[in-house]
Amino acid sequence: MVLPENILEILKTLNQAGYEAYVVGGCVRDSLLKRDCADYDVCTSALPNVVQSLFTHAIPTGIKHGTITVLTPQPVEITTFRSETTYKDHRHPDRVEFVSSIIEDLRRRDFTINAMAYHPNTGLIDPFGGKKDLSLKIVRCVGDANQRFQEDALRMIRAHRFCAKLGFTMDKTTQEALHQNSKLIQWVAVERIDKELKEILRYDPYEIENMTQLLSKWMPELELCKSCAQNSPWHDTNVLHHSLRAITFLPPFDETLALALLFHDLGKPATKTTKDGIDHFYGHSLESAKIADRICKALKLSTYQRKLICSLVKHHDEKLPLRLRTIYRFRIQMGFDDAWMQNFFTIRICDLKAHSLKGQQSVQSVLAFIDFYEKNKNRPMSFHDLKINGKDVLTHTSFTGKDVRKVLQRCLDLVFYDPEQNTREHLIEMIQRWQVI
Question: In this entry, which stretches build a coiled coil (predicted)?
């Protein structure tokens, strides 16, 4: 394992002071997988106050739990070997005890692939078979899987994240323990759920199919979508698999659009009807938008994200006839800007690509509309694009109050369809004529 100079210097400083020190956890795992290591964590037998005294730029970021952050110049967390006692809230240890053994420190960690340490002189320390599990592409808990998940319920969703990120599967014991303890996920802050969920969607959306029970507190519709068939010429899979497939077409990944695609058909189970053997989902977009709004609030997403996601979900199935009236409806009547339109096009294309071969044929019509839109999007679309403003209406006519806005709207309607009329002189002449009429 090739370590950066600043990490080697940290290990040397601790060793020369008479203490053990190792790099540990994710950096060791990623090195064995020949993946780039972004962060290096160090563990040591030195107590926190000793670590702080050995380094000039040391910050006690988590001294209660034995962690000192050293700026070298990148921040590196150095944590004293420790064991942890009971976890009453299924998230945080009630008490931390410092220990003298690296093996004891590794014993408290979540998964075998994260319970490895390394030092250039002693090599790899792997008491729980993490290296073997890496070769087998397995996520397995250290020791008793039930105990690991009961200690910290976040580990359950982290297990899925490692499966998604590394392309691994859980060993049977870990998987069974996760299902038995899935209700403990309620102890995890929803902000952490949101963060892990977005990472899973980034690396492998299909992992969500294995998580419907775990996520049921916030998204019970996932399980319903998983069992909701779509018997129609336009689909070839269940609702959930279709939605997850759509996410894989994002170019590139965008967490807000990924969530919109995850939510876009959640209303289908509630709106499903069947006629002549063909399934229909009339009104599912509106129902999905209502569900999306509830989930966005539950996940504490920003107001901006919530509004964008819900509007995209609500309109994701809109027809797009090649008419100026279609652009007028989106940009002027609904008030969506060009950035929204680009996001809408992305959602529409990803959704259609995740249909059956017959359903995918509609992609061409959407591409044709996108081309039509791009050729016409420079038409006046807002009051700001008009060559007159409210002050001009007040100055040159007797219109006042709410009528001023109505006049400007009428002007916008006019020049959208005929941009050549968007001149100051012509518009003033027009509004003066309307005043007389």
Answer: none
